[in-house]
Amino acid sequence: MAKIIGNHVYFVREGLTVDSNTVSKTSKPDNDPVTNWTNYELANCSGISPSVNTQKESSYSPNASGVYVKDDEIVTETEVSFTCTFETLSLLCYELLFGSGTLTAGTQAQILSGTAEVAGWVKLKQQDNAGNSILDAEFWAKATVSQVNFERAISRPQIEFAMVEAGTEGTVTVSNL
User: Fold this and answer.
1) Are 27 and 36 in contact (CB under 8 A)?
2) What pLDDT digit, counting tens, does each position of 118-147 carry?
3) pTM of the model
4) What is the CATH number of the domain that holds 116?
5) How crowded is residue 166: how many other Cβ atoms within 10 Å of its Cβ?
6) Which domain holds residue 107?
7) Within 10 A of 37 (CB to CB), how many other CB atoms are there?
8) Is 42 exposed, middle or buried (0-12, 13-18, 19+ CB in 10 A)?
9) Contacts of 173 (CB under 8 A, 6+ apart)
10) CB atoms within 10 A of CB 84
11) Is the dihedral of CA 114, 117, 120, 125 positive or negative?
12) If you compute the radius of gyration of the chain from its CA atoms, what whole number of angstroms results?
């Protein structure tokens, strides 16, 4: 049974040019060279909490005594998101927190001049204690800050990545279980 000990989160925002390709919902970075992703790692991810919410529609039909009973249920909507907890703050965290648009360290930006949501490709990578890959998932998402605490302890910001449909571009590979 595999034990996950390493979480890696990469985020490549929409509009960036990576390996001569402009990142969009229909154009994600490939894995050659690996720096297409590794240059965009959000450092020190200490946890990933998935959330799957579904909406269901039930159908009913009368039984032998005429009472309507549920006879089927189908999923009509699904929302999937991943909330990632980090041990360090990042420019992306501050950008989402202040809605400033893309930030550059040491350069002043206008608060609320951008948006508090950024779209892009996410890569989640999980490994075991031998460095073997357990999970490789790549999906289009919208990133938002879900929590940041500035107090007498280490700040552990949380960024939520809400998955958005991207056709056949989104992939998941589970290995070494």
Assistant:
1) no
2) 999 999 999 988 888 999 999 999 999 988
3) 0.85
4) 2.30.110
5) 18
6) 6-53+71-174
7) 21
8) buried
9) 133, 135, 136, 137
10) 22
11) positive
12) 20
